[in-house]
Every structure is written in structure tokens, then in C-alpha cells.
Amino acid sequence: MASPPTPLARCTKPCQIFLAMNFSGEMLQFLGSLAAILLLAGLARAFGLGGNPGISSLEQARIAASEAVYGFVPEACAIDGGGKGAILEDASGRLLLLKRHGSKYAGRLLGPQAIASIDGDRLIVHTGERRYGDVSLTIADAVRWARRIDALQEMAHA
User: How far apart are CA 105 and CA 143, in angstroms?
Assistant: First the structure.
């Protein structure tokens, strides 16, 4: 009576090579962890988690503004072409700058320390806050918004 074939005999050549390898415990743990990470990444992608939270509409900008500053109701808004931020103005002339921070948006009311510069159609806002940093927005009316930011300095000195 013949003995049953071994697992190595039933496999294709690459499978035979893999089964013949002598993996240490650490290597098996590493491969198992890698497989689990890839599985979780695939599931996150399949469920649409971690997508691009970009601002693409005035309504999204309004929501982000109200989350950043309670009671801020924008009258005018310019949204970055890539959705990575926006600048908004309310009825009282306050300017709110939004920029992406993880999957949400961080907002700052701009004050007299803010400085605006223009690079083509990009508005670069130097907020004067080290923790918030500078923000670059690609918007159609960058010159208008730069003038509004500069006016904040003039109003503070008046």
C-alpha cells in the first residue's frame, strides 16, 4: 500500500519552495502582521474610509466654518481649487481662514498680524501664528482677498 502524498508533492514549484522554507517565529509573526495590515487597508478602502475630505462647495465651507467658529455665517467665500482650504468673510467683516487638519478643517479668524501675498492665482496667507502656520490657496480672486487681509492691518492702526 502506497503512502499518501506529502503536502510538498501536491504543490506547484513556487508553493513547494515556500513550504520547504524554515521560518522562525519572528518571521511568521511579521508575515502574519503584514497580512493583517494589508487586509485592514483593503477593508478601509472597500468601505470608503479615509477619503478626500476636501471642500468642494459653499455648503461644505459653511459647515466647516461653523464648526471652527461658533456663529460664523459667511457672506463671501473663496474655496481652494484642490479643496484643501477656504477663506470666508462674514457680515461684520471678519475673515476666517480654513485649512485641512487631518480629516477635518482647522479655522482661524485673521487679525492684524496676518499678511497676504500673491503668487499667480495663489493667495499665501501668513497668519502670524506659529502653530497654525502659513496657508496657500489657489483661488480665482486672490488679489481681492489679499486686499481684504491687508485692510485688517489698516483697521487696527486706525
Answer: 24
